[in-house]
Amino acid sequence: MTVSPAPAEALLSEAQEPGRDRAPRGMSGARAHGLAAITAVYLLWSLVPVAVVVLFSFNAGRSRSTWQGFSLRWYTWDPDGSVINDESIRNALTHTVLLAVIATAITVPLGVLFALALDRWRGRLPAGANFLALITFVIPEIALAIGLLFMVTYLATPFGLGTTAQIIGLVTFQLAYPIVICRARLLTISAHYEEAARDLGATALGAVRRVILPMLFPAILVSAILVFADVLDNFVLVRYLSSDASTETTSMRIYQVARAAPTPALNAMATIILVVSTLVIVVGWLLYRRWSKRQGESTDLSSFAGNL
Amino acid sequence: MPDRTSRFIWPILGLPGIVWIALFFLVPLYVVFCVTFGTVDPIFRSPVPAWNPLEWQFEQVVVVWDRLVGPNNFYLPPVLRTLLYVVVAVVACMIIAFPVAYFTARYAGRHRALILALLVAPFWISYMMRMLAWINLLQPDGLVNSIITLGGIIPLEVNWLSGNPFTVVMGLIYGYVPYMLLPLFAALDRISPSLIEAGRDLGASGFELFRRVILPMSVPGIVAGTLLIALPMMGDYFTSDMLSKSPNTSMIGNLINLSIATPGQSGQAGALLILVLLVLLAPMIWYTRSNAKAEVRS
Description:
The complex is a heterodimer.
Chain A lengths: L5 H11 L12 H28 L30 H34 L3 H15 L2 H14 L8 H12 L1 H13 L2 H9 L4 H12 L1 H17 L2 H5 L9 H8 L7 H43 L1
Helix pairs in contact in A: 3-6, 3-7, 3-10, 3-13, 4-7, 7-10, 8-9, 10-13, 12-13
Chain B lengths: L3 H33 L2 E2 L6 E2 L10 H11 L6 H31 L5 H9 L6 H12 L4 H6 L16 H25 L3 H9 L4 H29 L3 H6 L8 H10 L4 H32 L1
Antiparallel strand pairs in B: 1-2
């Protein structure tokens, strides 16, 4: 599932300058309270069910609806059902993270290079490719999944269903993230920087590597986080392109057993993936903050150079 | 000073992406057409793709068309149901998302970053985990039933999880509303407070302000949000599978998914998929174009 990436960047920059005062004046107090109440109810409805899943992963009993005391049983010691002891859960967790790491490592460089090229290269070919990349953003995922499934099944591809097919599908589906985000950022980077670097003797490639890429850092970071989190969440593609139990992911596991009276170990598995994606976001945000602090100095330097 | 390298560098950088999209997006789509418009092996029931468009046959399309509008039209109810579910879910998402986005954009004050983070949180929570959450809550002996029966006193136990259309639509709303919220928030956030003050100074009432300033200016967000949730919902089969698993609530996505799982029906899955893509082609292109234009303008 994809979403317009702009808000994620807005959120990151929001975190940089909190508390922009937009408090309204006058008669709108009652209305603001009403809206606040709606927002609060919405947030509760949106997040409490998930919190219940996390809570019951620590249940001492088998029930997912009756609290029987706190225990780490479903993570650690339960002989046949815990995350550690259930091979299928363990395998789903490692495979999900593996897919996320590899897919991100391919998608982001591929998308960044493509965005760089699109920024300068005019013509029908790049414009058409860009259009297709944007279509992958809104096309129902099932279309791409079935297309790749048919391709792998009926065309003599050098790879079969399984990890490789899953990664190829994920990269194709996620490629629009780095492209859109980096292009938006490139539009704000003036061509002067590159020209200045060229005037100072840099080659075209050198200018990209030493001037443009560092300025793209926040866009690259944001797209990497988005791709990683989105791959952890993927279901349709990875399911159609999986080969057997060894390429099962956590979302497939939930789909498979959620309705068949599973133990809270399933909750524990979902909780672990939630922790992984939260960690990635937190680390990403810290990196972003460090970058913008450092950028505070280098912006001055580059504007100084620009004045020369 | 343009030199040889700078002329070739951009195409070289862009080439991997172009090749990737051609190989793994265009080719797969073409294969869908070849399988759909191919034939079926009479003995093994396996599809025989027709790679040459001149040899394309339309048997599968006729089969699917018959099931849609023929005398035995058992494909029609899921199709109509999908349209109904999607319309209801999209409207509900709008009604839910608008006040929340409006509050966050205008009134959240110093809690803004926190509220935004909470609004975005569902993106980091796996969709399947969010559906699992409702399966847990809606079990016969789950939290929801024990609340509405006041712990078993009132005999009102509802069967939520098998064939209940209300649950499936609620699941769709729950799953997709964040994707409506963010574009709506972005649009509402762009409305300058001074514009609203100007409207008020000119004597507009609260309702008039909403109707003549806020609503028109939020149209891009509403349209983007609607497309962002309606397009994927059209191919959604897992929400219904997770929360109902009954043919009474199956959607187009379920038809496609079932055909894929049934040997010999790949062509029908392809035909259904092509049908969905044809219907969605115009909105998809329109959304992509308008996004590209907005990018140029910004």
